[in-house]
Write a structure and sequence with these properties.
2 strands, 2 helices, mainly alpha
Amino acid sequence: MAKYGKKAQAKVKRAMEERKRGTLKSGKSKKKVTSRKQAIAIGLSEARRAGAKVPKKASSRKKASSRKKTSTKRKSTGRKKKSSSS
C-alpha cells in the first residue's frame, strides 16, 4: 500500500517547480525557498491541509535511548561559601 496519495504527489511536484523558478515563498516572512527539503516539506504541508493521504509528521521529541545521560551532581570548585551572619 502506498504511503502518499496522488494529491500529495501533485502538491510536492508543484512546490518543487516553484522552487526551481524561484517563486516559492515560505511562512509569514515570505522569504524565497532555496532548499530542496524545505520545498518538499511545504508541498506535503499543503497536501495535508487539502486532505490528501500523507503520513503524520515525525515527532520532534527525542527517544529516551538516544538522549545522552547526564549526571545531576555538580562538581565542587574547592571554595567554601561564606556564611553571611548578621
